[in-house]
Amino acid sequence: MTTPVKAAIEVRALRKEFPVRDKGIFGPRGVKRAVDGLDLDVPRGRITGLLGLNGAGKTTTIKTVATLLRPTSGRVTVDGLDTVTDARAVRRRINLIAGGERMVYTRMTGRENLWYFGQLYDVPKKELRPRIDDLLALVGLTDVADTMVERYSRGMTQRLAIARGLVNRPAYLLLDEPTLGLDAPIARDLRRVVARLAEEGTGVLLTSHYLAEVEELCGHVYVISAGRHLAAGSPAELKAATGTHRTIRLTVTTPSPATAAVATRFGADLELLSTGAELITLRHPDDMAGPLAAAIVEAGGSIGGLEIAEASLEDAILALADGSREAATV
Ligand SMILES: Nc1ncnc2c1ncn2[C@@H]1O[C@H](COP(=O)(O)OP(=O)(O)OP(=O)(O)O)[C@@H](O)[C@H]1O
């Protein structure tokens, strides 16, 4: 009996080392371990985030999944196909969009680029023609479809690279900083496209420094540091696990020793503003705005303003990164 193949990208005990020379080409040879025993699951129909600080190993992982790098050890499979031994079959199922790299030809028009890449992926010509029109419309390049790419702006070239990444209707889309350098409306459109593709069943692996983007899109997030697993879960689970707090800012227009005593009792910080009012800042995992405001009023204070900032995924990642730095120095 054969075991059923899971429809997912599975990264198992992945390790990737690069040969390096620390002190120039005549220096001693060393090894840089960019990825160190990583396990990831990227199922279809979900956007999976891969987060970590600079140099954590995100791009190396994505390039390995994309068959551009061979694992030093461990294994990556796409719907059960090995990225080393079945690389051709894997490439038909995936596509990579990297924000920094354009990966399109400047001496061709936008339409010619998509035609060329579509043929590389063996998209039947009858399907390719209307698909190219749809993709050009999707990324807002219909008007310049027949203009040489060398005359495109940076943003236009990047939009073409996004269309190129979708030309084979990949089952899995690998997005390495896809909105880097894009204008806000184009970045928003791209996020909508990616969310729709995932709803329709595409598996997406996303790295982004824009954590608000990750929080908006990703159902599950892996956090890595120095090539190793640090944490995983939904953005809400990561925030809860790191005990990341929401912040309450309450302005007291008539501060007094009594209102200051209330602030101290709640463990809040106090700041005297130039207007004479006092700003009370409280970071707490629970919603303390009501009890704090009530206690201030009871102490004779009047409230000039109240702001509540929810904890962000960014706070959680920073807390995790701090934790891993502390652990490394222990
Ligand atoms: N070809 C290479 N040769 C030597 N070292 C490399 C090579 N590629 C990556 N590295 C090193 O491996 C580590 C991981 O790099 P990687 O680009 O995967 O990180 P990243 O998480 O994508 O970082 P960033 O957020 O800066 O893009 C870094 O220390 C990097 O310097």
TrEMBL record:
Pfam families (UniProt xref): ABC_tran
Write the signal peptide boundaries: none
GO function term, MF aspect, one = ATP binding
Keyword Nucleotide-binding annotated: yes
Q: Which PANTHER family match?
A: ABC TRANSPORTER ATP-BINDING PROTEIN, ABC TRANSPORTER ATP-BINDING PROTEIN NATA
The record's similarity note reads:
Belongs to the ABC transporter superfamily.
Q: Which protein are we looking at?
A: ABC transporter ATP-binding protein
Biological source species: Streptomyces lateritius
